[in-house]
Amino acid sequence: GWALSDLLHHDILQQDFLDTYNNLTLKTLMGMEWVSKHCPNASYVMKADRDVFLNLGYLVQQFLIPPKKNFMTGYIYRNTGPLRNKGYKWYVPHEVYPNNTYPPYCGGPGYVLSGDLASKIYAVAQTLSIINMEDVFMGICLHALGISVTNSPWGVFNMYRIEYEKCRFSRLVMVHHYEPQQLLKLWPGFQEPKMTCHR
């Protein structure tokens, strides 16, 4: 479990709040704070959920060279708005967020931002009303900073599961809904020398 991982790798961060869905935004901001304090010169930061296939090599080759500033990309949502019905998991009252639409934002399962944004997002978040959808809140922070998300090519960040196929996955950054056990099974084969893939 996570305790063993911490023992071996010293890679678990803890803070004083419950690890619940409603606290995802706090968890993400904790990450931004940690990056800005301990990795201030990082070129990029990747936020990914535990249930995603992530092709970091392709991400770096295609999108992150040369290093960029004020950069954030992923699967972009546009023209979405707050749910005002209290019965919804994602209910947001007017007093917390008054606008009818959210700024564009990157879907939560996986997005990448330039390292310089971590401290900017953390700082501006202190001035805003926090909402429990961390991906939306990151978009609100960017909007408050006057920074736009960067479009990614259609289909490289996948919010829905796609059946695994090595050639296809070699040209994707992220696929949602792959559990750790599934990833452990397919990853060794994915890492083997590339076979010839026809575009």
Automatic annotation (TrEMBL):
It is an enzyme of class 2 (transferase). InterPro entries: Glyco_trans_31 (IPR002659). It is a single-pass type II membrane protein. It holds the Pfam family Galactosyl_T. One of its GO terms (cellular component) is Golgi membrane. GO terms for biological process: lipid metabolic process; protein O-linked glycosylation. Belongs to the glycosyltransferase 31 family. This is Hexosyltransferase. It comes from Aquila chrysaetos chrysaetos. The lineage of its organism: Eukaryota, Metazoa, Chordata, Craniata, Vertebrata.
